[in-house]
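Run log, item B.
One chain of 234 residues. Sequence copied directly from the ordering sheet:
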Amino acid sequence: MIKFENVGLRYGVGPEVLSDINFALEPGSFHFLTGPSGAGKTSLMNLIYLGRRPTRGLVTMFGQNINDLDRRKLAPIRQRIGVVFQDFRLMNHLSAFDNVALPLRILGRPEKEIENNVNELLEWVGLGDKMNVLPPTMSGGEQQRIAIARAVIARPRLLLADEPTGNLDDEIGFRLMNLFDQLNRMGTTIVIATHSQAIMDKLGHPRMILDAGHLHIESGQDKNWIQKKIEGVF
């Protein structure tokens, strides 16, 4: 689904913030992206969700070389990607309901389908009583859950999340990680940037580790976390 070959990124004439990045993500895979602050995680996420093009190297997504595509041809590729930004990027003039409904409306889904899906997802993330509330009047954790719901509502083929549990308590955080896992089991490829050692240890997915702009991948722990969940560990 995604392949980076000898990718480098620099801003302006400065030094490279990412150097010789090489990896391939198979459809339906689940990876954590981690590393110290300043290692380049946000820059790599920008490249993956096509917010920026690499300075050098080759990026292939959904079988297409994105280096050669103009902005018009990038649009349908972006529609396959759900993104949870660290700063949320909600539409402050829209209610929680309308923020979450936005991707489905862009796709032209019937309004009754939108209503059912959005209501169900907002209830699931614990915001069923905030459907008509505007984001500026909500807490940071509530806004984060709205951003996550908006990113997953259309069941994207690729989901990217930048610190999605950073403002949430452990219970809500693991509940949302369960949501990500359910999406993954339905075929969505997932990359989550996180500093949370607890989440990475408990879920055991492979880790993409950035350090000073260089990437290596660790396999993660051999845990069947779904079975552990059934057994009551989570």
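Observations after the first pass:
- The radius of gyration is 18 Å.
- Helices lie at 41-48, 71-78, 96-106, 111-124, 140-152, 170-185, 197-203, 225-230.
Flagged for discussion on Thursday.
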